[in-house]
Sequence to fold (315 residues):
Amino acid sequence: MIANEAPVYHIGIPNPMFEGDLNLYVIAGDPLTVIDTGIGTPEALVVLEAGLAARGFSVEDVRRVVLTHKHADHIGLAREIHDRSGAPVFVHEDDWDGVANLDARHEEFVPLVRRRLQSFHVPESEIENLAKTLGKGKRLARQTEAEKLRGGDRLPISGVDLEVIHTPGHTQGSICLSYGRHLFSGDHVLPTISPNIGAGEMRRRGMMTRFLNSLDRVAPLASEDLIVLPGHGQPFSTLLERIEQLKAHHGQRERAILEVLRQGDPKTVYEVARSLWSKLPGYHLVLGTSEVNAHLEKSIDDGQVREHDGRFSAV
Ligand SMILES: [Zn+2]
Ligand SMILES: [Zn+2]
Fold:
């Protein structure tokens, strides 16, 4: 007999971050499983409680939490759910530190961003303006003890496996989760926006190449009855089409950067980012420069760009 997958419900959690409302998913089987949690604010918690109640559940009923990656809009309420229900929290081993060691990572965050922007040759005044605003607001996530996942791990729910697919790119520990006809795609494949690549991993290089390879890793899951359930935005079924769009977007961006590098003297990451976007307000300064940097690393690895003292030129 083939087991039937348990019903999957959606709760939209308000989110002040760029991508918009966070999609929390409930797999209403045994064990009752929540995928991603929303930010850790009282307002988000009220929405989560109401969403669960509408299906006849409470926070205390949750038996397992699975996080698609370490960002605050996905992990914020994990500690609350864990404390009230005892549910274990699962996250990929490469993002584990950003959940289970969050307090230490939080302490290091502003100095890390500062060093990173300095290495991109961002003017000191712009770094100062941004640094003043960082780490000042209320924290949107609390440190939570967590279990480590690896690609290929299977977590059965009502007789059907929730399978972990490791998709590094947006973060190193980003995962997608396959469950019957459903693919929970986190921020790896989003329906209308292209996930940021580069800013999620300030200590690693090569994230753009990894992201593109990770798109190829989920492509074989495409099928006629597949439902993709993203971390933000509406469900969709056109997985291959969306993957091609994301690849085309990055191909275009890569060519635009090479075009900039062909004109005039070697350029810094900041100068390239400025020529692509006239404005990089607030945290977009980090997102934009980091993504340009991720492209430049890929182009260096592909033999199209060379770097000398933080300045890049086309080969
Ligand atoms: Zn994210
Ligand atoms: Zn997100």
In short: The mean pLDDT is 95. Residues 69, 71, 170, 187 surround zinc ion (ligand 1) (CB under 6 Å). The longest helix spans residues 239-261.
